Amino acid sequence: MRPERLHQDRRHRITLFRGSGDGRRAVVCFEHGRDRAMRGFEPPDCPRFARRLGIDALVVQTARRDWFVSDRSAALAEALERATRFYDEVVATGFSMGGYAALLYSAACHARRVMAVSPQYSIDPRVAPYDPGRHPKFAHIGMAMPRPEDRGARDVAGLLIYDPAIAADRAHAARIRTGFPRLTAVPLPHGGHPATGVLALAGRIGPLAEMLVENRIDAAAIRRDHRAVRVGAESYRLSLAIAALPRHPARALPELRRLARQGNPRTRLEAGMALLDHAEAEALALLGALLEEGAELPPGPLHRLRRRLVNRL
Question: What residues make up the domain containing 45?
Answer without folding.
Answer: 3-230
